[in-house]
Structures are given as structure tokens and as C-alpha cells.
Design brief:
475 residues, alpha+beta, OB fold (Dihydrolipoamide Acetyltransferase, E2P), 3 domains, five-stranded mixed beta barrel, two-stranded parallel sheet, 8 strands, 9% strand
Length: 475
């Protein structure tokens, strides 16, 4: 399953939507409105103060101390044009002109804000812009350390740009940005800052997406440092924040199974393989993952028992229930063997039954003819002189029981005459029943040992008198 790595997928759509909700956008927009007002004042012949400062004044007049100012009218006009340009590609060219003509400007922070917003819009479809976006976002954070748009951009695109062999400074940058997103989310997504045009549900969903991206970035960082325990914790936190990430479920599943954490890993494969909601993988990929899950589950557990329950849980939840357990095949076999040994030691009748079955399955008809047929079982060596089974079906002249497993028939009692009505209270489906008798026939697969006219303690049957015991003499 090596082809499942962190990919942007549909979550990239969140970048442009998310940009509308961050402070990185609101400041330039306000400045654009101010600039528009200034242009109107200029056309009317009035005084034209710049947004946040002053337009260059005539006659050498200087702005007040600490107040921002454009270098000249050309910078003012260039900035005004940027605020009015909606197309990100065209706006990027204007930003480059501004930077080339005015490398030093009082509006460096505002220019970087526009760079981050513009490059974020372009980077969603143009990978070539992502390295520059990270650089500009880093520059902006030097001036505005809590700028959420810049933090988010680095956390989102940093792992993809860094790949599997990132430079250490990028890893550090991603770590700082991801923690910044997590630490700042409550403030940025507080109710007071929700735009009126965005519903409460959508606002919280975008918050969850941002938190998930941050945790994914920290998981990537941990993976680069070969700290799989932290990576698994962060991926889990990401899925808790945003369950609509089937690609992350696949990545986490592979990581867990590789470390032989099979219950949790199989759960994540089940999630990625069958989840078909928002953020689902393509149908072909889901089928491949589900095929792997089906095989891996049976290989690990030894059967399909419990598989559907796990699939049902994974379909509605991105993280497994607390205390999830799937017994592996070897553990299950050992457990069953222990239980069988305890039963053999505690039940003399079953000890004979199990020994006869094992020999019949190993040696077949030859052993049946020489050592079982026409012998009375279980014989006088067993204190109770009886086997015990659970009644599975009842006919007037035939009773089928499960001796080893109460749900699986392995003993048939055949009678020459119908059982009397008085037997109905004792011989009924689901009840335990003691019996002994002469072995008449057997089948190997499915295993069945048939007794002719056996005795049932407490029930009057037509069984003949017993004259032989197993291993002593034959009738």
C-alpha cells in the first residue's frame, strides 16, 4: 500500500475558503476601501491621506513621526491597482513590480499579507508557487508572528514541499507554524469573529479542517524524525478534528500495521476502504484497501468472526472505540487449546470422546473397524459411563447432539423404536443429555459418530443389554 501518502486532495479547497476568514485578508481589504475613498477625494480635489499614512505631500511637507507614507505617487497608484485586481495571477505580477521598484517600503507587512493571500490562491493548483508562498509566509511571521493565514499556509504546504528529505530549517518552520495554528484557532474562530455570511456550522467545520492540517503537519514532522509514536498520536488527533480524511486513515493504517498494532491498523484500513462521504478516496482505491482489509483480518484473526462489526464501527467513526481488541489467530488457537486441555482433564467422558475423534480423523476407517465399531463407549473406565452433549435436533427415532461444540452436530443417536412420550421432557433441543452406546458408523468430514440404540439415563429405550466394554471384548 505504498502509494498512499499525505495528499492535498479535496482539502485544498479549504485554502481559498479559509482565506476569507482570516485576519490576513481583512486588513488589506480595509486598506483597499480606504484607497478607493482617497481616489474619490483626489478626483474631487480634496486632501488625499494614504491608507494608514499619507500620500506624498507637495512642497516637501513631511508626515508625522511614526506615520506610514508612500515613497511617491507611483507607489501609491501601484498599490491602489493591486487592491482593485481580483485575478490572483495578475495581482502577483503587480506585487512583483511593487517589490522590484520599491524594495524598501513603509507597507512591507501589508505587501507580504497580499503576497500570502495571492500565493495561497495560486498554490492550490500550481505547485510551483508553494515554495515562494512558504518563504513569504515566513517573512510575514517575522513582522506578525501570529498571522493565522501565514501559519496555516506553512503548515499546509510545508510537508509537501519538504517531501521525504526536508531541510532542517523547514521542519522547524512547519513545527512552529502547526503549533501556531493550534494555539490560535480558538481566538481566530471565536464567535465574535465569524463573518455574518458564514453559518456557525461552516465556521466550525473550517476550524476543524485547520486543526486537522496542523496535526497532519506535526505527524509529518514526527515521521521525518522517525518518531512513529508521536506521528500516530498526531494523525489520530487530526482524524478526531476532521473525520473526513480517508487518505489519513490509510496512512495511519499502514503505519500501525507495519508496527504490528493490528487491531487499530485494521480499523483504519476498514475506514479508508469503505468510507464514501466527503474526503473519500476514489472507488478503485477503496476497493484495493478493502480487499487488503478482508484478507489481513482473516489472516490475523483466523476467521471472519467480528469483521462486520468492525466494518460497521469504521463506517461511522474515524477512530476506533476505546479498548478495541481483535484476537489474533495464534493467540486464539492457544486459548482454545488451553480451554480444550482443561476440559479434557476435568471431564473423563469428554477425554474419551476427544481421543476417539482424533484417532478417527487421523487414521480413518481402519481405526474405526479395529478399535471403535461395535465397542461400547465411553466404557467402564469412565466413572459416569456416559458422554454428555447438547441436543440440536430431535426426531422420533433419531437425536442429533453436539458433544465438542453445542452448536455443531457430531453425535447421532439412532433408535430401532420411537422414543416414548415420557422422554419429551428430557430429550429436547438445547438441553444437555447424557448417553452411552455401541458405535455403529462414522463420517470423517463433517465428523459424525453414530450410535445404534444407545442408552439415555432416565429414559426408557429399546437399547439391548450391554456386554462389552471398550478395549475389553466385543459383542
Amino acid at each position: 500500500m505504498d502509494f498512499y501518502f499525505m495528499r492535498a486532495g479535496k482539502s485544498i479547497v479549504a485554502v481559498s475558503a479559509f482565506a476569507l476568514l482570516t485576519s490576513a485578508v481583512s486588513v488589506p481589504v480595509a486598506m483597499a476601501q480606504d484607497t478607493s475613498q482617497q481616489q474619490q477625494q483626489s478626483a474631487a480635489g480634496g486632501q488625499q491621506p494614504a491608507a494608514g499614512g499619507q500620500q506624498p505631500a507637495a512642497g516637501g511637507q513631511q508626515p508625522a513621526a511614526g506615520q506610514k507614507n508612500y515613497k511617491d505617487r507611483a507607489e501609491y497608484d501601484l498599490y491602489a491597482k493591486i487592491t482593485q485586481t481580483a485575478d490572483p495571477a495578475a495581482r502577483l505580477q503587480l506585487l512583483k513590480q511593487w517589490e522590484e521598484k520599491y524594495p524598501q517600503t513603509d507597507y512591507a507587512q501589508e505587501r507580504l499579507q497580499y503576497y500570502v493571500v495571492t500565493l495561497s490562491a495560486l498554490a492550490a493548483k500550481d505547485p510551483a508557487q508553494r515554495q515562494t508562498l512558504i518563504q513569504k509566509a515566513g517573512d510575514l511571521l517575522k513582522l506578525d508572528p501570529k498571522n493565522f493565514q501565514a501559519l496555516y499556509a506553512i503548515a499546509f504546504y510545508g510537508p509537501g514541499v519538504g517531501g521525504q528529505n526536508p531541510p532542517p530549517d523547514l521542519v522547524t518552520q512547519v513545527d512552529s507554524a502547526a503549533h501556531g495554528v493550534i494555539d490560535g484557532a480558538e481566538d481566530v474562530f471565536s464567535a465574535a469573529k465569524k463573518p455574518a455570511s458564514v453559518s456557525d456550522a461552516d465556521f466550525q467545520k473550517i476550524k476543524s479542517q485547520a486543526l486537522a492540517i496542523a496535526h497532519n503537519a506535526l505527524a509529518w514532522e514526527a515521521t521525518m524524525k522517525k518518531d512513529n509514536a508521536t506521528a500516530q498520536t498526531e494523525y489520530t488527533a487530526s482524524l478526531q478534528a476532521n473525520p473526513e480524511q480517508a487518505n489519513i486513515s490509510a496512512v495511519l493504517g499502514k503505519m500501525l500495521v507495519t508496527e504490528m498494532k493490528y487491531p487499530e491498523g485494521l480499523f483504519q484500513y476498514a475506514r479508508a476502504g469503505q468510507y464514501d462521504g466527503p474526503g473519500a478516496l476514489p472507488p478503485d482505491a477503496r476497493k484495493q484497501l478493502l480487499d487488503y482489509f478482508n484478507k489481513a483480518y482473516k489472516d490475523f484473526h483466523g476467521s471472519d468472526e467480528g469483521k462486520q462489526q468492525l466494518l460497521d464501527q469504521a463506517k461511522t467513526s474515524a477512530v476506533p472505540p476505546s479498548g478495541l481488541q481483535i484476537t489474533n489467530a495464534s493467540e486464539l488457537a492457544n486459548k482454545q487449546a488451553d480451554e480444550m486441555n482443561k476440559r479434557i482433564e476435568s471431564d473423563p467422558g469428554f477425554k474419551v470422546w476427544y481421543a476417539v475423534k482424533q484417532n478417527l480423523q487421523d487414521k480413518g476407517d481402519a481405526f474405526f473397524s479395529s478399535s471403535v465399531k461395535d465397542f461400547e463407549l465411553p466404557g467402564e473406565a469412565v466413572p459416569s459411563k456416559n458422554f454428555t452433549g447438547t441436543v440440536i435436533s430431535v426426531d422420533p427415532t433419531k437425536v442429533t447432539l453436539g458433544v465438542e461444540d453445542p452448536t455443531k452436530p457430531d453425535a447421532t443417536l439412532e433408535f430401532s423404536q420411537p422414543l416414548p412420550a415420557s422422554a419429551n421432557d428430557k430429550v429436547k433441543v438445547g438441553e444437555k443429555l447424557d448417553f452411552a452406546g455401541i458405535a455403529d458408523s462414522f463420517t470423517k468430514d463433517p465428523y459424525m459418530l453414530t450410535f445404534k440404540d444407545p442408552t439415555i439415563p432416565g429414559v426408557q429405550t429399546t437399547a439391548p443389554a450391554r456386554k462389552a466394554t471398550r478395549g475389553a471384548r466385543r459383542r
